[in-house]
# Entry
Amino acid sequence: MAAAVAIAVLAVIYRAVNKAPSADMAAGEQLLQILDDGGCAECHTANPEMPFYANWPLAKSLIGKHIEEGYAVFDITPLVEALGNGTVPSEVDLAKVERCLSDGSMPLAQYYLVHWGSSMTGAKKEMVLADVRELRAEYYPNPLAAPEFSNEPVRPVPDSVPYDARKAELGDILYHDTRLSADGTISCATCHGLETAGVDNKRYSEGINGQLGGVNAPTVYNSVFNFVQFWDGRAATLAEQAGGPPLNPVEMGCLSFDEIVARLAQDRDFVRKFNAVYPEGLSQETITDAIGEFEKTLITPDSPFDLYLKGDKSAMTAEQIEGYELFKAYSCATCHAGVNMGGLSYELMGQRDNYFEDREITLKSGLTDGDNGRWAQTGVERDRYRFKTPGLRNIALTWPYYHDGSVATLDEAVKKMARFQSGKKISDSDADKIVSYLDALTGQYQGKTLTNANNPE
# Structure
């Protein structure tokens, strides 16, 4: 009892002297100081500096739990480093800070006794939210949106991105060319069909000899906006990603790009066209570069949501507009931020509840190599079960959902996300509104609303 009283007294004293930083400081410096004063790094870093009271009886058990849960959800180190260095902060990190202060989810009231620095005054809160808005406007300008939406955590898809048209024309041919596979049966478009919203709508895609892959094929549309490619982030660029499937024994099955080059070299007309653009000739580098340039053209602007953000209030229904507000309220727009509404960070699958345990119980599906996520590339234990977040553009057309393709409908996907990622039980009414909003994310490709030939409707 005496220890609890002592901690409470010290906490009151701390909050009394824990004043807001000077308003004259730059946004990044101000935000950094508030995060530091707030003790955020005590729970949201890999190797936190433990406070001197960490082993006191009342504090010990709570601090350990807070550190484990806090670090699993948000590693604040990259944001702190960016703010300290004056470099570009992550769009997702800014959205996470904004959301947790806007909804009051952090710092939690019960943390105060063991995290004295977690004290957050009203003045500090307003400073943080203003700093986030200023940093977002500086690093992620949003000229396409109407003024009232210019600082939203998500942004409209632009009409185009820079690309080389001559290279993209060759890439289009190669993207649909089955000669990139060992037996001449599989092309990029086999699993990422442009007429089927950039996916194949199968849980696991089928490669040569009927072999099945270990993860669900993500859409190729808008992949140019992802910060890395593949669920585990093993490719840094579109070109690097294009070089993976041809050499994958389960997917296209080639032993090397030499055999692909040899097959393509027999096509004299193609070689002539190719060499006119790439004087260095056919190679893994030039083939994948061309495919990457083509994939830059696969963007889908002017969805109803994009038009709404640009100022057309009639582009979305009242239910969809309410769904968007709920989408933000359930913290979906933190991990699903930016132009592609995702694809900007690695996130733990099951932040608030054990997704894989539930899957094993409900679907009788145990863990696979594909479930390891980012860990497969880093070997860092924290990266196990952590995946690049999928973009939500055209999500109504790209079923089934999640990295394992285990969820058939958007309704189920939304409800499970609320449970496993936000720790909330969502009502049927709220889920319906969010699904309606997600329907408004279907954009246009080459001036026509994207469709899916597999759509049962």
